[in-house]
């Protein structure tokens, strides 16, 4: 599909509209929830703070979770684009290929056996887990006759996801303390996250966003085939390593702060391609904006599903993403 937006000016205007929508959604995230607040109260929480319950909720809960949700959604959206382009697999994403599960397993392992508790430690061990899971999935998918194919890589990723998920559950069964600390986090959630937690991972995420944008032109050449990319002078080995490193940073950082949130990385790139076609110079920024909007909207919805309690945002993204995933599989796109 060539997309429904044509011309660079229209696509640029679409980005501006997307940024405005993202800002509106973030404002709604700040004012909506079990405790009703208003835009006026949100502004006064920073300009005329009076210590009221509403002002405390806005400062300590609503604003941080809105910013965390936007940052994680941007990261997962871009990670999905990179993975789908690298593997030429339209259902590639950090959760399908076991990257999120690997990061989650390493973090639970650290909590259970190493006693880690800080977000800084979560971040580094999450990066390591994401890298190990991605490497194992790639190696397993490349084994055997025919080398690496989209179907083999998908199956290898599913195996890695199931393996790490099973190991994680096994550790939690034997350690009630770890279960209490990470159960809600493992479902994927931005509730209760603090700005200090975001500040820890944000520099790495921002760098990965910027580098991913720089790689977008090379993604176009690589999408034509590795042989074509080489003939155009692309150093494909260096490119693939750089793109894979960005996926590890984006997925590992997201899991460290919000847990393994599923389906954002699958769904978002397809929406972006529908809007702007197959030019990754536009797909990457569009996916970033759509990913942020989708995750923050899912978080708003998670507040109302079982009110007065809150559902993990990962549950809502799964409800959104599962029908889309089934649609892709039924069309047989990934078998190309």
From TrEMBL:
Top-rank taxon, per record: Bacteria
Signal peptide location: none
Protein name: Iron ABC transporter
Gene Ontology CC entries for this record: plasma membrane
SUPFAM superfamilies given in the database record: ABC transporter involved in vitamin B12 uptake, BtuC
Topology in the lipid bilayer: Multi-pass membrane protein
Family membership noted in the UniProt record: Belongs to the binding-protein-dependent transport system permease family. FecCD subfamily.
Entry's transmembrane regions: 12-34, 67-85, 97-115, 122-141, 153-174, 195-215, 241-271, 283-305, 311-329
Pfam families: FecCD
GO molecular function, one term: transmembrane transporter activity
Keywords: Cell membrane, Membrane, Transmembrane, Transmembrane helix, Transport
Localization per Swiss-Prot or TrEMBL: Cell membrane
Gene Ontology biological-process annotations: siderophore-iron import into cell
